[in-house]
Batch of 4 targets.
Target 1
Amino acid sequence: SHEKICRYIARESELVVVSVGYRLAPEHKYPAAYEDCLNATIHFMKNIEHYGVDPARIIICGDSAGGNLAAAVSQTLAGRSDLPRLRAQILIYPGLQALDFNLPSYQQNRGVPLLFRERAAFFALQYLNGDALHMQEVLEGSHIPPDMRLKYRKWVNPD
């Protein structure tokens, strides 16, 4: 689905672009997509000389759910001394926070097309477990135990 934009980026930037075709939810539940992206990235990085790529110029990029995967792969590889160090990550409207759909950004943009709040919750559930059975609880925020909400309030807090 991203072949044209990948070719454009490669041509205009004069860079090598590797696009990973990862398994999709709901048929393939978490962590299938993450594992596909991580394994493809590690393979590329371990065989970089085969592709003629400067190891100091590796950038990971993704949009939407792919932005989430790019961030997760970047974090996983950050401490790996056996692989080239990533130069950067580019996240284009990434899906990074699916814990609390009542934060100000979700409330302020709840009716903005293309990805309504309910659709964002639906896709997050599809990605995690393949069904949307508990969507109302997720939208209300009642799916997070109070002790966990308290523990992570520093990162997920409307203030």
Target 2
Amino acid sequence: MARHVFLTGPPGIGKTTLIQKVTQALRSSDVPVDGFYTEEVKEGGRRRGFDVVTISGKRGPLSRVSSDSSASRREYRVGQYVVDLASFEQLVLPVLRNVNHGSDTEKKICIIDEIGKMELFSQAFIRAVRETLTDPGTVVLGTIPVPKGKPLDLVEEIRSRKDVKVFNVSKENRNNILQDILAAVESCRK
């Protein structure tokens, strides 16, 4: 029986949009939801990076395009992006800790969008995600990238868990998969 729901699919396919729609639907039914999603940051029509946005509305940089390849301090990079690990951890870790320490009788939904290369530079994030997945009072609704290149340990661990239902989001199904995802999350809460 699934306890958690994850969406996977190529970049830009609509995983975050679906997560936001599910979040709105759950919140309108008074289901306790917390967590975060990532959002593109564009300037003049060009992607400049990504922000982390918590469900409660706090926002901070996850990464930005960097043209400077001669980095003096230790930098975490994914392609052209430099990851702001301090900003990411400052926003996300307290949210994940709070979700895990709730004392509600009702299962909470924890949004984790996404568990990808940028986020996985943080060892503290990896530990917090594992804790959240083992917390019996929490249902995770998250996103993971499609396998590409070197496998990401935590992503493969999640993909192979028996208590995780994975939805593959595609152009063909993204506009009619919302109810299935909602039903799966609701079933995890029982």
Target 3
Amino acid sequence: MCGCRASVPSTKQYLVNQPAPASTKKSPLAAAGMPKRIPIAKQLASIKALGKGSDLEKAFATVVLVYNNSADPEGKLSKAETKSLLQTQFWGFIQGQESKPKYREIISTLDEESENKIDFEDFMILLVSLTLMSDLLQEIKNVKTTK
């Protein structure tokens, strides 16, 4: 839900200074005073230029949106946030790579100098590097594309 009136499940209204009844549930983000995130699919759909975009354009736009939703106001990710994002959003590509020296080298750089941050360009290089060594890439390459 976007939070607009049309998508709010309850149509009951409360006065500004009147507390909501105890039965009204709040999300953890709302309780913390943080805005509720709009799903990536809805964010993607809101980009008019991508309405007739190619699959590749939409794929890259999705990467940008996932990154931007996690980045700080300067558009950067801490190394810990980067590692967490990879583990939650890129698991299929990194799964089973733990024993590969190149993978360990890449991940160890995220553990070192943790005060340094990752910008979008470095994040993309990281994604491409992890993709190229991935077992999933080989599986994707072997997908039959014609009848």
Target 4
Amino acid sequence: MSSTTLLAMHAEGAMRLAVVGMEPFGCSPLVRALRGTIKCDDEYNNAALSFNSKIKSLMATLGPSLAMKIFYVDIYGLIQDTIENPKKYGFVETSKGCCGSGLDYGQGCKGLPTCANRSKYVYWDAVHFTEEMYKIISEEALKSLMKTLA
């Protein structure tokens, strides 16, 4: 998101905005496979952290000057914690996706077998989260927004 985008939304009448930060995408099954490691990739994760920092700075600068309420939703920390402590969230698999080989994604999963219990996987495919992970993300986002509004 750029300041131009934020200004354009304000010009259209936006007064409240929720911005979701970047995830630690260096932990996605696809990036791990491309890098040839089972560990999260620090270079990719640092890029996500840098982006998140810049977004928060932009929000802090422009929000008050435009009289906009801008809420930041930190999914980076939540997803990182989920990957490091999967049992805490009810997961057993964090390094591969549920469909196909676990490294397929998007339309590449079409017609491929899936895992027996997708609710135990963080990732549906090599880049997208499962419904269960999205549920956790949305619940935490709502809690965060409610605290901000209180």
